[in-house]
Amino acid sequence: MTRWRLTVEFDGGPFMGWQRQDHGPSVQEALEQAIGRMTGETVAVHAAGRTDAGVHALAMTAHVDIDRDVTPHRLREGINALVRPDPVAVTAVEPVADDWHARFSCVGRRYLYRILNRRAPPALDAGRVWHIAQTVDSDAMAESATHLVGIHDFTTFRSVHCQSDSPVKTLDSLRVEQVGEEIHVRAAARSFLHHQVRSMVGCLALVGRGQWKPADVKAALEARDRAALGFNAPPHGLYFVEAIYP
Amino acid sequence: MTRWRLTVEFDGGPFMGWQRQDHGPSVQEALEQAIGRMTGETVAVHAAGRTDAGVHALAMTAHVDIDRDVTPHRLREGINALVRPDPVAVTAVEPVADDWHARFSCVGRRYLYRILNRRAPPALDAGRVWHIAQTVDSDAMAESATHLVGIHDFTTFRSVHCQSDSPVKTLDSLRVEQVGEEIHVRAAARSFLHHQVRSMVGCLALVGRGQWKPADVKAALEARDRAALGFNAPPHGLYFVEAIYP
Questions:
Q1: Do residues B16 and B24 make contact, with C-beta atoms less than 8 angstroms apart?
Q2: What is the ipTM of this complex?
């Protein structure tokens, strides 16, 4: 048996999310079926993080145990050939120690959220950005973001379905940058609560559109109450960028 | 009557090209129908350049004459609402002089060609890049490109269907740049022959993959013979970037 580390890019559009679901396609199932067809084995693919329906990944990290002897080259090429036409690509494979775990060994996760801020809807990036037609003040968003960085009880930014033991997390960074017509929000932490990034971006966007003041973000955080916000940015602007390991 | 300048972004994937065709959808027809529904007028939309089937535009420039009084804001919003679900977006509108012409007033055109150079196929950018799995030497491509810049008879890089009076064109620049996993080829000229950019990129890619030497590009150009090459890079990696006016 060899444990393989996989780096996976995917378009989240057609999937119910990373995790296998009874009611629709998932990235996990697409990969498990491709690897199963290639090896004849029933495999389980574990990822650094579970993404929501519609969320994309530039480089999700996952692992899978395979009994059959296979070279890294053939494994990557085989999965990519068999996973088609699903929009999933394995960009790198590497053998790892048997006790290495994509989720439990992970010490950092990075996300990118893309907002397209212009009047016209996206033609080339439909399904890849959150389109906000009203003027957004990215400086006000950046100022608000500073209130969220650090160790906090993020209950306000947590899904009611979140299974984390504690709502207390350390947000290492939350940066807002204007990039041409887009506003990019980059978040980094050891781990995130369910919906935390989309919820934080939704909150920053309220500030960017002038509906909230930056101080309202601080008040919402301190309220430790989901009812103080309850608004998520849509999934299709969100990208899992990178999982970090020691 | 007001002549309007339009800046248009489109995903070329579902279209037979810019120009109205009997046998399938075109960007021109999509815009003309949207404007026609909005104004009740039968309009003709003229573009700076005709793009092939599958070729995208970041910012094509076009113009259209409209009798009805309309504000720039309402014109742009109206077209964008009515052109859906076609992947076309008007990003800017501006009234221009009656003798201003998107094609004949244009003094420069810029294209970008995106090659994804990695083993794994694109998951997020499928239909947006030319995927080349073999290793490509972008330095050799850049060296070859210098042979094509300047005033030349570009017969080798011209479609047999090209309607240009002369095969002699001035290529102002042809730059090759490695951008992460992508190789970007940027071309600028007053005007291009039919298939010239895709043909030049196809030729550079032969060098990048080691099938040709940079000197072979010079020889192919000097042959002034379509049979010396006859290979076009696929359309879906090509973007019309910008039309330039005095």
A1: yes
A2: 0.89
